[in-house]
């Protein structure tokens, strides 16, 4: 048992009035655990039906889980909002210190609505919210600089988390990110643009609450069990050694690495941007999220000749992982690690989602190669695969939006393709740009039917590499597996444990950890709750106009060889049809939020 009793509190902030209040929402946390489970209920409550994602009334919801600060790997904060990229459900997760900082501040969730009358950042501490003037750091060219200034102005070093946007969010690029602790992000779905629409530069949150454990002996035993698994399991050692960048070579060997806008599935020179090469020649340090012994965050030390006359060289620390290597490497035909790292650094400074901007630029490159656009569209840029210097310039233009073409690119690949053509090779699914897996039909069905249209919803790529290779299953069986996995992941994201730890936090361990802090669920209850949260997301999506028949599938996925050889229009169409029937029926059967 734990004695801390502030976790059920929700902080409501009104930017219109510079007002805040705290409410006890034990009703939500007891039923839905925390994290995603609580956040989707708050989104149903706080988000007006049909609201523009960038309107003042559109809410930002941040939520953490009951294991935060108690057990290892419970390090995530969930953000829930209406996505300006898709016009529907937006959900993003971030690590770092954010979850622990929110808990130490005495809250389980934060709801932000309204719009400030001038740029502002929030400082949350000691049950108070301070509305700080951010005019001088608005439109700074680097989000790193803005974060450093907030850090210098605010106290409580070591117990705080600083979230902030860059120019991408300020200019409301539909896939702008929110950066925390420099190297972690609410990356996907455009939370940064929602911040920008509210003139909200960032949030500094800190606190000094504590969590007292009563049954100390039993707690230590369970804690040690989870900790040992986190440091001893081979998969967790892989995340420490190479990070997710270890996926590059295996996927390339399988002909499953999206390359040059998925016109190819293998990159010549992939070994140069592999996790192995980056670890050998560039790794500067590893970083861990709070309460995580794994340290999967890898930072490259890029040493270059300095432009400053007082120095010969400068060294830049740049975070990298598989998704950045794919989107700003292979997807753009880049195999030079220094070129790729410099592009990653530029994307980070502007504060846009690396996956989305990489896919957007890949589509634009192919449009130019096919003579569907010209340098008049690109404001003088000649786009070519592998040309990192030009892509760096292009990122800036996407953020600043000097003409109609760049304004379209700032709204995402599907929007731009609807305006300029090239839909057959516009690699977005459910209006969200694809992640780095061209493994087979299960991956693409996962992108299409996942609640967030993300590989992290259901890991369809894993089904491709097991079931679809060894003993191919039907579209209906694929969808059934995806939905079951998605339900399980709702539990993990309600606990706000890292998805990398899904092999540790299995259903029996989830039950045991919750029981140890006084929350009793049977395993059957947990399975039902995971499904209920999943279908609650779909109820929100349907409410906001989502339709399965509107899903666009680019023909490109049928043209490029994959490791299964099973990506066909018939397979994908059957899967979507079955998913529509099953999800619609189940969503209607679930209780209304």
Name the features.
Aldehyde Ferredoxin Oxidoreductase Protein, subunit A, domain 2; alpha+beta; 6-stranded mixed sheet; Aldehyde Ferredoxin Oxidoreductase,  A, domain 1; 593 residues; 25 helices; 3 domains
How are the SSEs ordered, and which strands pair?
Layout: E1 9-14, E2 19-24, H1 26-32, H2 35-46, E3 60-63, E4 77-82, E5 89-94, H3 98-104, E6 109-113, E7 120-125, E8 128-133, H4 143-153, E9 160-164, H5 167-170, E10 178-180, E11 184-186, H6 191-197, E12 200-206, H7 216-232, H8 234-241, H9 248-253, H10 275-281, E13 283-287, E14 297-305, E15 313-320, H11 322-327, H12 337-350, H13 354-369, H14 388-400, H15 404-409, H16 413-420, E16 428-429, E17 432-433, H17 441-449, H18 455-458, H19 460-465, H20 467-470, H21 475-495, H22 507-516, H23 523-543, H24 556-559, H25 569-589
Parallel strand pairs: 1-6, 7-12
Antiparallel strand pairs: 1-2, 3-4, 3-6, 4-5, 7-8, 9-10, 9-12, 10-11, 13-14, 14-15, 16-17
What would your notes on this structure say?
- The chain is α+β, with helices and mostly antiparallel strands.
- It folds into three domains: 198 residues, Aldehyde ferredoxin oxidoreductase, N-terminal domain (Aldehyde Ferredoxin Oxidoreductase,  A, domain 1, 4-Layer Sandwich); 171 residues, Aldehyde Ferredoxin Oxidoreductase Protein, subunit A, domain 2 (Orthogonal Bundle); 151 residues, Orthogonal Bundle (Aldehyde Ferredoxin Oxidoreductase Protein, subunit A, domain 3).
- It has 25 helices and 17 strands.
- Helix 2 crosses helix 21 and helix 23 packs across helix 25.
- The protein is globular and about 65 Å long.
């Amino acid at each position: 048992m734990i004695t801390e009793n502030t976790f059920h509190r929700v902080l409501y902030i009104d930017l219109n009035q510079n007002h805040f209040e705290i409410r006890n929402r034990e009703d939500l946390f007891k039923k839905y655990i925390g994290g995603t489970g609580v956040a989707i209920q708050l989104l149903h409550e706080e988000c007006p039906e049909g609201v523009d994602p960038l309107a003042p009334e559109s809410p930002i919801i941040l939520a953490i889980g009951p294991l935060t600060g108690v057990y290892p790997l419970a390090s995530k904060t969930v953000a829930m909002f209406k996505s300006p990229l898709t016009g529907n459900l937006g959900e993003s997760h971030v690590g770092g210190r954010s979850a622990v900082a929110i808990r130490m501040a005495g809250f389980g969730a934060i709801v932000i609505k309204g719009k400030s009358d001038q740029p502002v950042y929030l400082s949350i501490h000691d049950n108070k919210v301070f509305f700080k003037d951010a005019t001088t750091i608005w439109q700074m060219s680097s989000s790193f600089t803005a974060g450093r200034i907030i850090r210098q102005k605010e106290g409580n070093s070591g117990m705080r988390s600083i979230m902030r946007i860059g120019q991408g969010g300020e200019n409301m690029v539909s896939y702008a990110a929110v950066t925390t602790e420099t190297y972690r992000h609410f990356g996907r779905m455009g939370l940064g643009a929602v911040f920008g629409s509210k003139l909200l530069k960032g949030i500094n949150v800190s606190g000094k609450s504590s969590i007292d454990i009563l049954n100390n002996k039993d707690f230590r035993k369970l804690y040690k069990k989870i900790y040992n698994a986190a440091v001893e399991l081979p998969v967790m050692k892989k995340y420490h050694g190479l990070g997710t960048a270890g996926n590059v070579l295996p996927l390339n060997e399988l002909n499953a690495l999206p390359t040059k806008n998925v016109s190819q599935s293998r990159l010549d020179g992939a070994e140069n941007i592999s996790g192995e090469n980056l670890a050998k020649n560039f790794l500067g340090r590893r970083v861990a999220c709070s309460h995580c012994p794994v340290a999967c965050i890898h930072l490259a030390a890029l040493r270059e000749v300095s432009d400053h006359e007082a120095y010969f060289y400068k060294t830049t620390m740049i975070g990298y992982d598989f998704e950045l290597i794919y989107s700003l490497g292979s997807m753009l035909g880049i195999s030079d690690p220094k070129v790729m790292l410099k592009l990653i650094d530029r994307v980070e400074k502007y504060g846009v989602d690396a996956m989305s901007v990489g896919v957007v630029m890949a589509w634009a490159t192919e449009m130019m190669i096919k003579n569907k656009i010209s340098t008049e569209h690109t404001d003088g840029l000649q786009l070519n695969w592998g040309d990192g210097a030009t892509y760096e310039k292009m990122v800036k233009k996407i953020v600043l939006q000097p003409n109609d073409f760049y304004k379209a690119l700032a709204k995402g690949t599907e929007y731009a393709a609807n305006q300029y053509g090239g839909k057959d090779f516009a690699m977005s699914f459910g209006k969200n740009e694809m992640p780095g897996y061209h493994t087979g039909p299960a991956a693409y069905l996962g992108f299409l039917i996942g609640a967030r249209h993300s590989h992290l919803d259901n890991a369809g790529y894993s089904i491709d590499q097991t079931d679809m290779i060894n003993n191919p299953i039907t579209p209906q069986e694929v969808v059934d597996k995806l939905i079951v996995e998605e339900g399980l992941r709702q539990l993990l994201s309600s606990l706000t444990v890292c998805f990398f730890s899904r092999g540790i936090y299995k259903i029996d361990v989830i039950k045991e950890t919750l029981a140890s802090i006084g929350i009793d669920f049977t395993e059957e209850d947990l399975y039902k709750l995971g499904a209920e949260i999943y279908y609650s997301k779909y109820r929100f999506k349907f409410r906001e106009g989502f339709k399965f028949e509107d899903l666009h599938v680019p023909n490109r996925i049928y043209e490029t060889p994959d490791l299964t050889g099973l990506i066909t229009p018939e397979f994908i169409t059957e899967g979507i049809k079955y998913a529509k029937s099953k999800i619609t029926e189940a969503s209607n059967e679930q209780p209304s939020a």
